[in-house]
Design goal:
The protein has helices at about 25-50, 55-85, 95-100, 100-115, 120-145, 155-180, 190-215, 230-275, 290-300, 300-305, 310-315, 325-335, 380-445, 450-465, 465-495, 510-520, 520-525, 545-570, 625-635; strands at about 20-25, 85, 90, 145-150, 150-155, 215-220, 275-280, 285-290, 315, 340-345, 350-365, 370-380, 505-510, 530-535, 540-545, 575-585, 590-595, 640-645, 650-660, 675. By secondary structure, the chain is an alpha+beta fold. It has 4 domains: about 15-265, no CATH class; about 275-380, PAS domain (Beta-Lactamase, 2-Layer Sandwich); about 385-495; about 505-675, 2-Layer Sandwich (Heat Shock Protein 90), CATH 3.30.565.10. The strands form 6 sheets. Strands 8-7-12-11-10-9 form a 6-stranded antiparallel β-sheet. A 6-stranded mixed β-sheet has the order 14-16-17-19-18-20. α1 runs parallel beside α8. The N and C termini lie far apart (about 105 Å). About 30% of the residues are buried.
């Protein structure tokens, strides 16, 4: 008969009448294999639970894992019971035998759910192992209660408790082996799964066979109930086949899911690592995914964009463009795959930026589900670099043109200067001759020359105003020579400043370069400032790119003049001061360009070297001068460009460059400023 109550041995129990059973080794091995396979399947499913980001999929895997583990525990127990042979007829109650699977499934579900955490502590694993042990024990003793036989079933209480403890310890060890991180390279994930499955399978078998050892069968009266009268081999192998099929399908499902997730993870890794923005849209234009770079470019969070209409949030062809004007819209509606450049995308804050984008149509085989993938990149920095390049090319062209003009002007100026010197020298001789003739005429007797001719000569001399002419012509020649010399100096300065562009550094006289640049920039500062120069005559030659170095000095001089002009204007008599100083410093040269202008406001100091940043009025500057200067000094010459400033007093820009390429200025990669006052 069967009895749902557990009865334990006591001191009055007579064990001399108990019968002993024996185990079928084939079915015992079969039960061990089922327990191990079920544990292995459950561990693989536990991996999928942890790896799944979708909540519904995670719970589906939890259910599958509980079913796999519960089914495996039940199948192992049932085959283990079939392996036990008593010297009497034993049958099984169909209802209790089938219902005994529920505790195993419920306990497995609770254990897996409890272990479904981002961090699994020792106490979580201990409690998970205890839940498994309780489930295994409940299932076992409920299944034992379903035995139908002519005997009374009694349990040894000590072995009963040992079987539960055995199951708990081995189950906890199996979970510990699986979930505790191991940094040793000698054990792989598959090996860990095998060891953990072996431990958990052993816990199931140990509990079962220890519990069987605690059972004593006392022959008694037979009760007639609904029984199963089928060969134990048929039942065992049928149970094994059914369980193996279920577990095999689940293992295959975990393998497929893992490979799909690995492929998906690789795609996400690629999407997350690229610098370009990538997002997908469905046929209605709603965003289905976006990579981190894309979300960052447009200033949104990924979660905020999923499910939103990209036509409203991200893309317009023009600032006021409708969706119908969008090339992406054309891709979705007409199947076109255009390549767009200088299109407009919108950021979350309402600002816009130019992009280069490509649109790819993705269509399913049934053509019902159509999506598009959009790849884009921000062109803002590229356009800035292109503008910088155009400006540099323009300046280089102007420099080459200036050098050519200077060369062409230099030759006639040289002729003019030489001829003026010749006229100056010759005039003194002519003046002597004229004076001698005048004295001679005055010394002649009245009757020595025709009176009429003498009168005409006197009138001519009076009309020519010879004393005035002879006094002023030398002055005019001297002024002309001085002017020609000034023109020659300007031409030489233009030639020195307009040094041909070169990628090779040459030794350069910094003092001479600054003098030439001051001359070239004279028209910028002469009306608003006095120029003061304090050059160190012992300054060494500096290895630099002359053309670009001159451009830096010019930019700083022009900025100084504009800063002073903002204070004094162009009023007559109102001038500031620009002071240019050079001196030796360690293994390099320091150049200071100080002005008595407005100074740099506090809120602009950290952006002063940014491209296109300017504090000047519209049309007064491009915001490129200081950015180019910083790039030339820091990146191309290994130096430093810093500044000291005080609002209302003025600004001093400090250039420090090494005299030789191998002597880089310490800290040259820093942009710093010192604030006075």
């Amino acid at each position: 008969m069967f009895n749902l109550s557990f009865q334990f041995l006591d001191s009055t129990t007579d064990l001399t009448t108990s019968v002993q059973g024996r185990f079928n080794p084939i079915l015992v091995v079969l039960s061990l294999a089922i327990a191990g396979l079920a544990s292995y399947t459950a561990l693989l499913i536990a991996e999928r639970v942890h790896a799944s980001e979708n909540r519904r999929i995670r719970y589906a895997w939890l259910g599958a894992g509980a079913f796999a583990m519960g089914t495996g525990i039940w199948a192992m127990h049932f085959v283990g019971m079939l392996a036990f042979k008593l010297p009497m007829t034993v049958n099984y109650n169909l209802f209790l035998t089938c219902m005994s699977i529920l505790p195993a499934i419920l306990a497995s579900s609770a254990a897996l759910h409890f272990l479904n955490a981002s961090e699994i502590s020792f106490w979580r694993m201990t409690l998970g192992g205890l839940l498994m042990a309780v489930g295994i024990g409940t299932m076992h003793f409920l299944g034992m209660a379903g035995m139908v036989m002519d005997a009374e079933l009694l349990y040894d209480p000590a072995l009963f408790m040992i079987s539960i403890a055995f199951a708990h310890l081995l189950a906890t060890f199996g979970l510990y082996t699986k979930f505790v991180p191991v940094n040793h390279h000698w054990i792989t994930g598959a090996q860990r799964n095998f060891v953990s499955a072996l431990a958990m399978g052993s816990s199931i078998c140990a509990m079962h066979y220890t519990a069987m050892s605690s059972a004593h069968f006392i022959p008694g009266e037979v009760s007639l109930v609904e029984i199963i009268a089928i060969s134990e081999y048929v039942l065992a192998f049928a149970t094994t086949m059914a369980t193996g099929l279920i577990l095999g399908v689940l293992i295959l499902a975990t393998i497929i899911d893992r490979r799909l997730q690995e492929a998906n993870g690789l795609v996400h890794l690629i999407l997350d690592s690229v610098e370009e923005g990538i997002f997908g849209i469905d046929r209605e234009g709603f965003i289905t995914f976006i990579n981190p770079a894309g979300a960052k470019l447009i200033g949104w969070k990924k979660e905020e964009l999923i499910g939103q209409s990209q036509y409203v949030i991200i893309h317009h062809t023009h600032l006021a463009g409708a969706p119908e004007e969008s090339p992406i819209y054309a891709t979705m509606t007409k199947g076109d795959m255009p390549y767009g450049r200088n299109e407009i995308f919108w950021r979350k804050d309402g600002s816009t930026f130019p992009v280069e984008c490509a649109h790819t149509l993705i269509q399913s085989t049934n053509k019902e589900n159509t999506e598009a993938v959009v790849t884009f990149r921000d062109l803002t920095n590229q356009q800035k670099r292109e503008l910088q390049l155009r400006q540099s090319q323009k300046l280089e062209s102007i420099g080459q043109l200036s050098a050519g003009i200077a060369h062409e002007i230099n030759t006639p100026i040289q002729f003019i200067s030489d001829n003026l010197r010749f006229l100056t020298d010759s005039f003194h001789e002519v003046q002597k001759v004229l004076e001698a003739y005048a004295h001679l005429v005055c010394a002649l007797p009245p009757d020595a020359v025709d009176p009429q001719r003498l009168q005409e000569m006197a009138a001519t001399l009076a009309e020519a105003d010879l004393p005035y002419v002879t006094a002023e012509i030398p002055k005019a020649l001297h002024q002309s020579l001085d002017g020609a010399e000034r023109v020659a100096n300007i031409v030489r300065a233009m030639k020195d400043f307009s040094h041909p562009g070169s990628t090779e550094k040459t030794l350069y006289d910094v003092n001479k370069a600054i003098e030439s640049t001051i001359t070239v920039a004279r028209n910028e500062w002469k009306y608003v400032a006095e120029m003061v120069t304090q050059f160190d005559p012992a300054l060494p030659l500096v290895s630099c790119l002359p053309g670009e170095f001159n451009q830096v000095i010019l930019n700083l001089l022009v900025n100084a003049a504009h800063a002073i002009e903002a204070v004094v204007g162009k009023a007559e008599g109102g001038k500031g001061t620009i002071t240019v100083t050079t001196r030796m410093q360690n293994d390099g040269v320091e150049i200071r360009i100080a002005d008595t202008g407005t100074g740099i406001p506090e809120n602009a100091r950290h952006k002063i070297f940014d491209p296109f940043f300017t504090t000047k009025e519209v049309g007064k500057g491009t915001g490129q001068g200081l950015a180019i200067a910083h790039d030339v000094i820091v990146k191309k010459h290994g130096g430093r460009l810093t500044f000291e400033t005080e609002v209302g007093t003025g600004t001093t820009f400090i250039i420090q460059v090494p005299s030789r390429p191998e002597h880089q200025v310490k800290g040259h990669d820093e942009i710093t400023h010192l604030v006075g006052g």
